[in-house]
Structure formats: C-alpha cells, structure tokens
Amino acid sequence: MVTLLHIDSSVLPGEASASRSVAAAFRTAWEEQHPEGTVIHRDLAANPIPHITAAAWSAGYTAPSERTPEQSAAFAAREKLIEELERADAVLIGAPMHNFSVPSTLKTWLDNVLLLGRTAGESPSAQGTPTVVVASRGGSYGPGTPREGFDFVQNYLEAVLHRTLGLDVDFIVPELTLAPRNPAMSELIPLYEASRKRAFEDATTKAKELAERLAA
C-alpha cells in the first residue's frame, strides 16, 4: 500500500482556504487511485508543532545512549515527524503565502524534519520522494507585476524541499485569491477564476499522473 503525507498549514478552514481546497482536490483524486492506501494528515494550524528547542536540535547530533532525558523526550517527537516523511511514497503540502513567505507553522515542521546526516546531506533519507506543493497567494508576483520579487515561498521551498531534503518537487500556484474579496482587485477576478480553475485541474491531473508513476 502506498502512503501519502498530507500537510496543511493555512489558518483558514475548508473552502475559505485556496491551498486547502486545491490540496483536497489532489487528495481526493489520489484516494480514488489508491483506495487501499494510507494518508497521514497533519493540520499544522489546528495542531501546531512546537518550535524546535535546543534539546530537540542537539539530540539530533548526539548518540542515543548519550542523550539526556530532556533530549530523548524532545527528539522522540521530532523523530516521529521525520519517520512520517521517510515512510511517505508521496508528499502533499499546502503552503499559502503569509506576509510574502510560508506560514510559521510550516517553517516549524521543516525545522523539525531537517536533520543533517539523515534527511539532509549527501544521501537524504527521503530523496526522490515526489512532492506537490500548493503555493497559493492573494496577489500575483510574477515578472512585470508591481510586487515582482516579493515571493519568498517558492524559492525558499525549492531550496529546502528539493536542494536540501532531496525531494522531487512540483508546484501548483493558485494566485489572486483576494480578488473576489478586495474591491481594489475586482478587475482581476477573471484572472483569479482562470488561475483557480487551472489549479484544480492541475491537482487532479498531477494526482493521477503520480499514482500511475508509483504503480509502474
């Protein structure tokens, strides 16, 4: 049986969140292809992971037999997150833009799972795992836009997920999600609607393609 690790980080619930909605579409298509599979779902907004502590960090570089009780307890929680990543056949991450970067809860998850010599380094333990990131944003940050260069979501996640953890990363980018709610962006609603439609189509397509890839 295949395992999907599904990470949500939006503070908004359900359909109010573009990243949650598109990720849910991916998951639905995935589960249709893998009805006997397993989904590990972590909602980082509903159940935040504690920020990494000195004990949790140092334990990662200390032999188990030499750890203090505080280090052992701290690393047990961290190791569970690492093992979930290592067990996954595929990873799905909802990463909405918060103030031009990722939510702090997602950053905390990354801080916990990134361990040099295990998940990072010459031979990352989850290397090659296909990963789909739904990077939603309220505006648009592409070339020629007023805030070109303000996007610190995709470049950051590309660096951490792909170049550091070795994951095989693909992005889905629903943009202009604030257009229906912000009168100043009303003329951008058609572009928002096109982006939203494309994102849902991409989610379904990528889920099916990935299912076929893993079954091959």
TrEMBL record:
Binds 1 FMN per subunit. The keyword NAD applies. Keywords: Flavoprotein, FMN, NAD, Oxidoreductase. Residues 4-164 form the Flavodoxin-like fold domain. The keyword Membrane does not apply. HAMAP family: Azoreductase_type1. This is FMN dependent NADH:quinone oxidoreductase. The lineage of its organism: Bacteria, Bacillati, Actinomycetota, Actinomycetes, Kitasatosporales. The gene is azoR.
